Amino acid sequence: MRRIEAIIQPHKLSKVVTALHALTDFPGFTVFDAHGQGHGRGKGGVFAYDNKEGLLYHRRQVLVILCEEGSASSIVETITAAAHTGQPGDGLIAVTNVQTYVRIGNAEARS
């Protein structure tokens, strides 16, 4: 089992979701709003800062997907293609192993 976490631009969410639903083995996802800063420092090499607001953060959407090992690469490729703009800040995708999960509705545990 794999956990895919994708941080994407908010305006790309509907395109990514549409592309994911076109996959035959797509298992579903969870999405939530996030705010953060990338590793870059912006123009002039300084942190984005506003005198009234303090540090400025970029809005992003985070998708979390649990899938079978064999589906992970096609899901990652689909997200990458749909979320790509060619500009800095397109996002990031992380894939990790899931050792165990439990379905809350029926207490089914799987490893």
Structural key phrases:
111 residues, Alpha-Beta Plaits, 4-stranded antiparallel β-sheet
Distance between the termini: 8 Å
Radius of gyration: 17 Å
What's the rounded overall pLDDT mean?
A: 87
Number of domains: 1
Overall outline:
globular
Instruction: Give the C-level CATH assignment.
Output: Alpha Beta
Major sheet: order of its strands?
Answer: 2-5-1-6
> Helix count?
2
Would you mind describing this structure in some detail?
The chain is of the alpha+beta class and 111 residues long. It has a single domain (2-110), classed as Alpha-Beta Plaits (2-Layer Sandwich), CATH 3.30.70. It is built from 2 helices and 8 strands, in the order βαββββαβββ. The strands form 3 sheets. Strands 2-5-1-6 form a 4-stranded antiparallel sheet, covered by helices on one side. The chain is globular. The model has no long low-confidence stretch (mean pLDDT 87).
Topology (elements, then pairings):
Blueprint: E1 2-8, H1 13-21, E2 30-36, E3 49-50, E4 54-55, E5 58-67, H2 72-83, E6 91-97, E7 101-103, E8 108-110
Antiparallel strand pairs: 1-5, 1-6, 2-5, 3-4, 7-8
What's this model, at a glance?
The chain is an alpha+beta fold.
